[in-house]
Amino acid sequence: MRPLPSIVDFTQLLGAIVRMKHYSVVITLIRQMESVGISLNVYTLTVLINCFCHLNRVDFGFSVLARMLKLGYQPNCITLSTLVKGLCLQGNISGAVRLVVEMEKKGYKPDVITYGTMINSLCKVGETGAAIRLLRNMEEENFELNVVLYSTIIDSLCKDRLVTEALNMLSEMMSKGIQPDLVTYNSLIQGLCNFG
């Protein structure tokens, strides 16, 4: 088409294809976009990083980050959170923690999504105590905590046979005005049934 659609239009299209989980298609389309002279922006490059992370190629994701910096773009919190998620998907929790620390040193403020990804990953590998410490850090930094964060930890506590602690976490959550949802109650019911 002449004139070519804007990069914003392309990025919206790519985002829709990502939601359908066609990551390889997105990577191919981005290469074709570049071959016809369309300049990529931070958002498009972040979509590309996301695709590589979902394909378990977080190393390529970091290559795209390097390219982004070389082009003079500043990655945003979403870009870096995507890499954190990619590291977590590969089971590299320590690498994800190092990246978050590095982000903070460089002035990036990890958001609730970044920390939620970390909490979820820590719980999946049985590091519930570390997940709770991270939740406490979030409280100290005045993050707005939500039902997903608490439910993730409650589920992990139940799986660790710590149902009493899970019930205490439920009470704490409700005292802060956060209402439990179906996931929260299902975790507790399963924990109570499985462990008496």
Automatic annotation (TrEMBL):
InterPro entries cross-referenced by the UniProt entry: PPR_rpt, TPR-like_helical_dom_sf
Keyword Repeat among record annotations: yes
Alphabetically ordered keywords of this record: Repeat
PPR repeats: 41-75, 76-110, 111-145, 146-180
Domain of life: Eukaryota
Family statement: Belongs to the PPR family. P subfamily.
Protein name (database record): Pentacotripeptide-repeat region of PRORP domain-containing protein
